[in-house]
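Predict structure. Input: DUF7707 domain-containing protein, 188 residues.
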Amino acid sequence: MRSSVLVALSALGLVSATNFTIDIPSVSLTERSNWCTAQGNTCNTLCDNNPSANSCDPNTLDYSCLCQNGSAPGLQYYLQSMPTFICEEAYSECNAEYVGNAAAQSNCTTSIQDQCGSLDPNNYTAAAVVTTTSASSSAAGKSTGTASAATGSGTAPVTTTSSKAGAVPTAIGHGAAAVALGLFAYLL
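Output follows.
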């Protein structure tokens, strides 16, 4: 029984589909179960340990992975994911089919293996967002402001800053802040 698995690849808003056909029964049920376990772990990692859907059937290799925010992580780019296991198996089967034919095996590499995911999910870090807002200065030269932060564990935050009515942004480097404050003091 040959089964066809569609892996959608997207980058920069462009979508292309690569159809890898593998012989599912040729992969042992134990191996397919291991793939499903790894797939589930990768889904958990890429969804910050809080997926809304995370399932895998070792008999059919049907899987789902959906994060709480409704997005599906780019599993095809990561090792230890079902798209990569299927891609690697398709490459292996292609190579075995063309033993002794260097040109065909080279085609297996460029058309299949080069499409397999290579990013380590253990190196994934969620993008954290920190938002800082400075309110406008009052007539007496005092300013009020609020800051809120949302950070993921162990990540460097992405910072956005806004300022109104001449308030100095708070997310600038120390050297620039010293120059700005010195200039401000000189103007007073």
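The chain has two domains: 3-123, 128-187.
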